[in-house]
Design a protein that fits this description.
The chain is of the alpha/beta class and about 350 residues long. The protein contains eleven helices and 17 strands. It has two domains: about 190 residues, Medium-chain alcohol dehydrogenases, catalytic domain (Quinone Oxidoreductase, Chain A, domain 1), CATH 3.90.180.10; about 130 residues, NAD(P)-binding Rossmann-like Domain (Rossmann fold, 3-Layer(aba) Sandwich), CATH 3.40.50. Strand 11, helix 6 and strand 12 form a beta-alpha-beta unit.
């Protein structure tokens, strides 16, 4: 998506692909207005944008917080084409990433701990699109990376290591940090037994990252067809979750379980797989589900159940550097922006291996 920007004193207009409303969620070409950059902001010419399952949820208003028009895209890689006068860490021409957030209050306790995703400022973190979703009374909206250009605060830019293939690296900005963060915070280390549940856009990254951390990794999937892929990604073993015999044999086996299932699911079969004093963390959904969690099975073995939500900017940079160091890349299929609606359908049908990335210049 090529475009020469026509600037005025207050704003500029960019080409984008977005949904116009809840009754019309097909992405169509449109123009959106971005505010002119402040002294600490940059304009980025977008080269590649990942397609995340949360983009699909947001466009469809599955979480009942979508602001329309909605231009998704929070896995973006591009080059800086204009920088504010106080930008000092980056310069015009630099290759950078923009992930899930473009700003926050940067003064609250959470921001000072490099966990901007938990910002407790007036509006919470400013998400790359559909923000401020924390303030339902505001008419403010942001537009994501399915566009020719995007604006971000300098402190929310991610350096892209030269060792990474930029055509594949965009999903690390969300799928990478979403799986890296809980593995890091729950102190997964060499020798730990780790299960990754769900081998899709998130799970296939979780397998690679946990393996690079030195863990003994088991992939748990509903699909026998993913066994070969999981082993090639680095898994030491594969369990088909619908195989009751194999699930029973794995009871109390895992120090840590990362669940990447993107919709409500029955957590109880996975609770039984947690070792005493082990942990299960979901980056998908624990519920609501028709079967409640069996708290007796949690308490009897001092198990922990938790959740995790993306990661801060420092952690996003950390996972980028970690992936570069260990030669970890998402498995991607490249598409043109005109094919994004078909890509959404295929993601919902689990027909992608394992992430679509939009070549914005194709």
């Amino acid at each position: 998506m090529n475009q020469d920007i026509a600037y005025n004193s207050d704003s500029f207009t960019v080409k984008a692909y977005g949904a116009k409303g809840e009754k019309n969620t097909t992405l169509v070409e449109m123009e959106v207005e971005r505010p002119m950059i402040k002294d600490n902001e940059v304009i980025i010419d977008i080269l590649y944008a990942g397609v995340c399952h949360s983009d699909i949820h947001q466009v469809a208003n599955d979480w009942n917080n979508t602001r329309y028009p909605c231009v998704p895209g929070h896995e973006n890689i591009g080059k800086i084409v204009k920088a504010g006068s106080k930008v000092s860490k980056f310069k015009v021409g630099d290759l950078v990433g923009v992930g899930c957030m473009i700003d926050s209050c940067q003064t609250c306790a959470q921001c000072k701990k490099d966990e901007e995703q938990f910002c407790t400022g007036p509006h919470g973190a400013t998400m790359t699109y559909n923000g401020y979703f924390a303030d339902p009374d505001s008419d403010f909206n942001t537009y994501g990376g399915y566009a020719s250009h995007i604006v971000s605060t300098e402190d929310f830019l991610i350096n892209i290591p030269k060792a990474l293939d930029i055509k594949k690296a965009a999903p690390i900005l969300c799928a990478g940090v979403t799986t890296y963060s809980p593995l890091k915070h729950w102190n997964v280390k060499a020798g730990d037994t780790v299960a990754i549940v769900g081998i899709g856009g998130l799970g296939h990254m979780g397998v690679q990252i946990a393996k690079a951390m030195g863990a003994k990794v088991t992939a748990i999937t509903t699909s026998e067809s993913k066994r070969k892929d999981a082993l090639e990604l680095g898994a030491d073993d594969v369990i088909i979750s619908e195989n009751e015999k194999d699930m029973e044999a794995a009871q109390m086996k895992f120090d840590f379980i990362l669940v990447t299932i993107p919709e409500a699911f029955d957590v109880n079969p996975y609770v039984n797989l947690i070792a005493p004093r082990g942990s299960l963390v979901t980056v998908g959904l624990l519920g609501p589900y028709e079967e409640p969690t069996n708290n007796m099975n949690v308490a009897m073995f001092a198990r922990q159940l938790g959740g995790s939500f993306i990661g801060g900017i420092k952690e996003t940079q950390d996972v980028m550097d970690f992936c570069a160091k260990h030669n970890i890349h998402p498995e991607v299929e490249m598409i043109k922006i005109e094919d994004v609606n078909e890509a959404f359908k295929k993601v919902n049908q689990e027909k992608v291996r394992y992430r679509y990335v939009i070549d914005m210049k194709a």
